[in-house]
Design a protein that fits this description.
The structure holds 2 protein chains of 2 kinds. Chain A is an alpha/beta fold. Chain A has 19 helices and 34 strands. Chain A is globular, with a radius of gyration of 32 Å. Chain B has 2 domains: 95 residues, Fumarate Reductase Iron-sulfur Protein, Chain B, domain 2 (Orthogonal Bundle), CATH 1.10.1060; 72 residues, no CATH class. Chain B has 11 helices and 1 strand. Classes of the chains: A alpha/beta, B mainly alpha. Strand 26 of chain A pairs parallel with strand 1 of chain B, so a sheet runs across the interface.
Chain lengths: 660, 182
């Protein structure tokens, strides 16, 4: 016999102002099975919870219904209170009479009637509740980090320092990501490679980190605590363990001036066998087979092999597939810059001296193609006047993207500042729409670029750039003075918009995590769960989530790491018990459920007789993956799937309670 | 309007103004608080913040021929309220002097310019205002001999219009101030 207790919460005047709570409680008391119904000012308060606990104990309740705020708010609070009195937490039901009644209705009479109806439904439901146990999933205490930029490195180091094994997968031949390409970093102007390389080396030497560079994620299956990943280790054509990184091979390569260096963003050349930059980690070259003469001319050229002391070059090495089992994954795939060629009016690609911000970064860098001397690409002369254009691609819903790329205001101010420091008497002009300098020390940094380094800021966009007499004529607007302005520049730097890394969508599909319409990975909750993806066990870090600067990327890497360390601190992972379950007797194996499942939680299972003959194939729900959304329940033609806590019987009883 | 920025000219003009102003043009936020509070803004052709930006961009012609620099009444509301402590009223004074030095005559605010010149001459020779001389010279230059004449008796009666100059004791120091500025 059901013994139900009912509590009607006032929520101060939030509910009591619109709903006659006393009457709701009186009506509730009349429902068969209800032992006692009371109203209380704040059920979520400590005394409120004690009232609940006391009644469970004193009246020996079998179920509780709270008419209160949305279960999103305090379901957990009340469940925990119930557990303390030995009641199964799933015997707590909430009728939402705040968000669904008092906040959306004005007529007190009608609102009260609706509140009573909602309450009745929940009472009927709770009478039919069955105890549900949370699902426990075993954990493989090993993490995978996808992407070896600053956020991935930070995540890997933090996890590894927490005593957990980490696998770090990086697509490029070296870790370091975009940050290692930068010269100095705002707003403190510390040299990027000086602060980055120690971290890179730490990753390489860390006993808990297994580093796979020049490798890609090939396949991911499984669920939180139990992911099976396949990593494709592309053939470097080098026997890594023997290589000393001496450089004899790339010095011997005849392909000197033929291939543009990716690291220097096309501002210099590299050889076919190469390391992307001198501080590369690992310092092991790779042969670019698409350009290497050995592969193109049928094995004739082997100058690198001849030059190599330890003979560690193996032209016949093949791609390798490595399988690993991990318990959690960090997706830190990073970003790319938009194509500047979208803006024909700026002449990128047409005029050699119109370059991107990342290219200017390489021109400033001591490890760059000009060894840190600012020289323009066309004739190698030092520019005296540079025009910087912000928001190229960003904040342009027509040709580019509508969002703000967040870092350009700051790096442009830094560029103008460093240019003033390196070329005395030079002048920079910055065209901007707004200046966004919101972190610690940022506003002061931009102001000092204007006030101390003489950069002139013009509020307005540039409409066209053309060449005249060896100068780039920049036609723009200064909306503050209301003038069209024309500036003769020696060089133009475009602050190009940030977009997700090419191929990050494929990785998202592999991992089963969601991304927004631009391709940035979406957080489980934008404010309260910023480190988690939509899929349990997969965490996010860095620019893959959206534009952010280095400090924020580091923070997000650490956040993902701390979430994983937290997850691994328990022996098992607990999942809410409200998941789908299949009646294998009635399941006909149509797998329509498999098609609608957004979480890939349904797999095929063979039902065999005692001789091992397959009788039929039925659906099986993976409790680690199931999110309890109920899509499969609706999709099932043979009514063979039930969602625990939301059984058909319960739903029908709820509806029937209204039919008076 | 279209402006071709000539880097050398821009620098010359901006640094001329800055050195006389003892302030940096780049300090300006372009927030517009000066223009928001300016009591004569409605008559100006460029708002005070636009004058600052255009000076920074070296648009000498337009700035020195503007109405704004002559219409400014130096009430200092702008400078008092400026969040960056920029000398907004001061820049108007500097620009008036630069215009005078370059022999630029305002086409629209001739009388204001004349008054400005007479006023400063007066201060230069007396160390303070000698009203009778100021009024006399202004009227002769503008040829408005009888305008406001009826105010004179009342001013004399109240002792506001003295008949003889009352020079400051150390006129050399006044001369030094003028010389320093030039």
């Amino acid at each position: 016999m059901a013994r139900i207790g009912v509590f009607v919460c006032w929520c101060g005047s939030n509910i009591a102002g619109t709903v006659d709570v006393k009457r709701v409680a009186e009506e509730a008391a009349k429902i068969p099975g209800v032992v006692e119904a009371v109203d209380y000012k704040y059920m979520c308060s400590d005394p409120g919870q004690n009232t609940l606990r006391k009644m469970i104990k004193d009246k020996n309740l079998t179920g509780v219904v709270l008419a209160a705020c949305s279960p999103h708010m305090h379901e957990n609070t009340f469940r925990k209170a119930a557990v303390k009195e030995g009641l199964n937490p799933y015997f707590i039901e909430i009728a939402n009479i705040r968000e669904q009644v008092s906040w959306v209705h004005e007529d007190k009479e009608k609102a009260t009637a609706k509140a009573i109806d909602l309450l009745k439904m929940m009472v009927e439901k709770v009478k039919r509740n069955k105890p549900i146990e949370d699902v426990r999933v075993p954990l493989t205490k090993k993490a995978l980090v996808v992407g070896g930029g600053i956020s991935g490195i930070q995540a890997a180091l933090d996890i590894a320092n927490g005593g957990v094994e980490v696998i770090l997968v990086e697509k490029e031949p070296s870790i370091g990501g975009k940050m290692i390409q930068l010269d100095e970093t705002f707003p403190t102007l510390d040299c990027s490679s000086c602060i980055m390389t120690p971290k890179m080396v730490e990753v390489y030497q860390h006993p808990n980190i297994k580093l796979y560079t020049y490798s890609e994620l090939e396949d991911v299956s499984g669920y939180i605590g139990n992911f099976n990943v396949k990593i494709k280790k592309k053939a470097r054509s080098i026997v890594e363990k023997d290589c000393t990184g001496c450089g004899d091979c790339w010095n011997a390569c005849p392909m000197h001036k033929n291939v543009k260096s990716e690291f220097n963003v096309n501002l210099s050349e590299r050889t076919a066998i190469y390391v992307p930059f001198p501080q590369a980690v690992p310092l092991i070259p790779v042969i670019d087979r698409s350009v290497c003469l050995h592969y193109k001319k049928g094995g004739k050229c082997q100058k690198c092999y001849d030059a190599c002391g330890p003979k560690c070059i193996d032209f016949d090495l093949q791609d390798e597939i490595i399988e690993e089992k991990v318990g959690a994954i960090v997706a830190a795939t990073g970003y790319d810059l938009m194509e500047n060629s979208l803006y024909g009016e700026y002449g990128y690609g047409q005029f050699k001296d119109v370059i991107s911000g990342l290219q200017f970064e390489r021109l400033l860098s001591a490890s760059g193609p000009t060894e840190g001397v600012v020289k323009r690409p066309s004739d190698g002369k030092t520019p005296e006047t540079i025009v910087f254009i912000q928001c190229v691609g960003s904040r342009d819903p027509e040709k580019g993207v509508p969002y703000c790329s967040k870092v350009c205001c700051m790096y442009t101010a830094k560029h103008a500042k460093l240019f003033a420091h390196k070329v005395h008497g030079s002048q920079s002009y910055v065209f901007y729409i707004d200046i966004r300098a919101t972190s610690k020390g940022y506003e002061e940094f931009v102001r000092s670029t204007m006030e101390n380094d003489g950069a002139i800021y013009l509020r307005g966009r540039v409409s066209k750039i053309y060449e005249d007499n060896g100068k780039l004529i920049v036609k723009g607007a200064d909306t503050l003075s209301g003038n069209q302005v024309e500036i003769a520049a020696d060089m133009v730097v475009l602050a190009t918009g940030v977009i997700p890394k090419k191929g990050s969508d494929k990785i998202a599909q592999m991992l089963g995590i969601s991304y927004d319409k631009y391709g940035f990975y979406t957080e489980s909750h934008p404010k309260l769960r910023p480190a988690e993806s939509s899929t349990a066990g997969i965490y996010l870090a860095g620019m893959a989530q959206g534009p952010r600067d280095i400090p924020e990327s580091v923070v997000s890497g650490s956040a993902a790491a701390s979430k994983i360390l937290g997850l691994f601190s328990k022996s098992e992972y607990e999942v809410e018990g409200t998941i789908a379950s299949v009646n294998k007797t009635t399941c006909v194996g149509c797998f329509y459920c498999k098609r609608v499942c957004a979480y890939s939680a349904i797999s095929k299972e063979e039902v065999k007789d005692r001789n091992g003959n397959v009788l039929k194939v039925v659906a099986n729900v993976n409790s680690g993956l199931c999110a309890g959304c109920g899509a499969c329940v609706n999709a099932c033609f043979s009514k063979s799937i039930d969602l625990k806590g939301y059984l058909d019987e319960q739903i029908f009883a709820e509806i029937k309670s209204l039919a008076v | 309007m279209k402006t071709v920025i000539n880097e050398q000219e821009r620098r010359n003009f901006a640094s001329e103004v800055e050195s006389k102003l003892h302030d940096k043009l780049a300090k300006c936020y372009q927030c517009g608080k000066c223009s928001a509070g300016c009591p004569v803004n409605f008559e100006m052709d460029y708002t005070p913040n636009q004058i600052i930006k255009m000076t920074e961009l070296g648009m000498a012609d337009r700035v020195l021929n503007s109405k704004t620099i002559w219409l400014c009444v130096s009430c200092n509301t702008c400078s008092t309220r400026c969040p960056k402590g920029f000398e907004v009223a001061g820049i108007m004074d500097v620009l008036r002097e630069v215009a005078a030095k370059r022999g630029i005559e305002s086409k629209t605010e001739k009388e204001v310019q004349t008054f400005h010149e007479v006023f400063l001459d007066n201060v230069k020779s007396n160390g303070r205002i000698f009203e009778l001389e100021l009024v006399g010279k202004y009227k002769l230059k503008t040829k408005h001999l009888f305008r406001d004449m009826f105010l004179a008796p009342k001013m004399i009666e109240k002792g506001k219009l003295k008949m003889h100059s009352d020079k400051v004791s150390n006129i050399n120091q006044i001369a030094k101030i003028f010389k320093d500025f030039e």
